[in-house]
TrEMBL record:
GO terms for molecular function: ATP binding; ATP hydrolysis activity. CDD domains: AAA, RecA-like_ClpB_Hsp104-like. This is Citrate:sodium symporter. The keyword Nucleotide-binding applies. Transmembrane segments: none annotated. Keywords: ATP-binding, Chaperone, Nucleotide-binding. SUPFAM superfamilies: P-loop containing nucleoside triphosphate hydrolases. GO terms for biological process: cellular response to heat. Residues 230-480, 502-669 form the AAA+ ATPase domain. It comes from Myxococcus xanthus. Residues 668-760 form the Clp ATPase C-terminal domain.
Amino acid sequence: MEKNVHLFVRTYPGLGVAAHVLTHPHLAAFAPTLHAARLDIAAVVGRLLKRGELWDEETHWSDLRQRKTTLTVRALEHGKMLSVPLRLTVLTHGVKARPARKGALARQALRVWVPRVDVKGTLHDAADLEPFVEEMVRHELYLASLDRLHSLAYVGEEQVETLSVPVRFRDTPRARALDAAKPQRRQAPPPGLAEASRCLNEEARAGLLERAWERDLEVSRLAEAVTSRTRASVLLVGPSSVGKTALVHELVQRAEAATTGSPLHGLEVFSSSGGRIMAGMRYLGQWQERVKHMVEALRVRRAVLHLDSLSELLSLGAGDTGLDVARQLLPALESGEVSLVLEATPEDVARAERTHAAFLQSLRHIAVAPLSAQAARTALQQASHRVGRARKVRFTPDALDRAGELTERFGSGPSPGGAVSLLRAASTEPGAAGEVNAASVTRAFCTRTGYPLELVDSAIRLDPDALLRRFRERVVGQDEATLLLRNLVVTLKTGLADPSRPLGAFLLLGPTGVGKTESALALAEYLFGDVARLARFDMAEYAAPGSATRLVGEAGGQQGSLARRVREQPFGVVLLDEIEKADAGVHDLLLQVLGEGRLTDATGRTVSFRNTVVLLTSNLGADSAGRSLGFGERGVQERAAHYLGAAAAFFRPELLNRLDRVVPYRALTEDVIESLARRALEAALSREGLSRRGVKVTFGEDVVKHLARTGFDARYGARPLKRAVEQQVVAPLARWLAAQATSAPPLVALRVGAEGRIALSGLE
């Protein structure tokens, strides 16, 4: 006796072949050849058939057809909408059509599969195949990340194979007795659940579900809730990555292991998502019919439905009718006929209370808090075994210690979820084949955050003096500011920073063009290896009353610019330029950021600033501090007192008290100006146009002094120096090179002419 199944096969050039059973994607294999993959899957399917599974399920169709389609979906990357083309394989086969209306023509009904995206549906008019597929895929991938779409890219040949698995049964009295003692096979999922969900019990039997370590109390409460006669629906509330989904998976595995008499014996759990529920729904009323079938199937089977997002459920079907999916489910939940398990963060619950209070009251709330340090260490050790088996690596004890340490020190998500994510990233690092140690985990963390290795690895010594010299080479003439940057980095290196506040919160005071923005750029470049990690906001744009909402967002509207930037990249530097120009509401907003290291946006979600440096700049007091070069008549102490007094007179005390330091920047001295002029000139002369022509430009001290003298303005600081270099050097040099009939001389000299202008001449 044999069972035929369809295999969906993808060939990866140079890597191997991936294949899975079309109707059961979790039954999969990856092997160097198709023959090896078929053997692996045949062995697994054979074991399931011997246990009496799969026989009653339809897994093969003689009229299965394959075709290709190309469509474009929208992706969300760093807040921007991108159009990504996808080439997909579509499979179809005929099914029993619904009865045609009286007088209407009978139409062919098709079962439609898109295996790579893992969506399927029933189409009642074959003429609408292409728009039906496009609708299903776009619902499933709505605003998906760019990484997910790249993982779905067409990489090689795709085909459907038929696999025949022979199974022999011993027809003896002993075999019949053993078969009678086995539990009855579960029925195939009814149409309502089969189209919009997957059975977690099947995945548990295949060993594909996660375990929830050190969560016995939460699992017991969850089991008690879903098996009760009334209010059998649960809302798991906890921060992201705390392990809410793992609780559901643990419940399913305990149900599979439960014996007769246990409340969990025979419990079925199905998992779905908003995209699955709405896939293929084109007209008003279609999704209501699907939800109705799902509710009826859950009621008959006494099964549990798991949805991993409360916010997604509440948004499904919302429209002008006022009836969404949540409100349609509410009567069944209140009566206890249907058991639902949802997941949400505290911020999600706060938002939902304003719009769906009755729905929330019908759910039992179970808080899922982060594990204690000891429990997290035990859970991480257990989870690492599963990750290691999946990635075919072994994690050393010091790798587990380092993952837990970095997660706790830098706040990369609740333990052990953040640490497990870090282990997965470390297992893909180059050179991690076979064994992952602490060094691999550290490198993976540095790759993820941008931190330099010497800052994260405690075994690497950091020279404070060398670090100070580096900052002083970048920020010239501001000794107090460079000391501040050095001390900030050293504090971060030693782990002595306050974990409940931003990495640093400083107010930089001084006239324009003295290096305040350059200090922020230097810090971002050292800490995160990229000046793009500096998020700069010009506070002059937020001077109008109510402008603070543009930073935190509006309820039901777009995300705030500040909240979105820090949420997308929590490891970075935020620069609020000319903070004195901002509306008073912006100052009030900063009280929470600077004091508690977090920001609550308009939707109720919390954004952590724990790994962010917040820099405020201001020109307060610059106009009254004097305009002579260097302000030599004022001593350093007087200058500092002047700027601090100007800040104290303008800002509220509660804002100043939340800052780590107020740093006054001194006016630029003559030697500093010459140093900046030389730097600007060297930067201009290293541009691509000169290097491509092989032209080298030399200059003397007279040119530097001339630029420093003519390009500096005490009111505007060093910024006019760059304009002077462009006007007096770059523009004449460009005209001279463009006028050369032949190739330009390899050497060009700059000098100050008798008329007091910079002249240039070509040298052979």
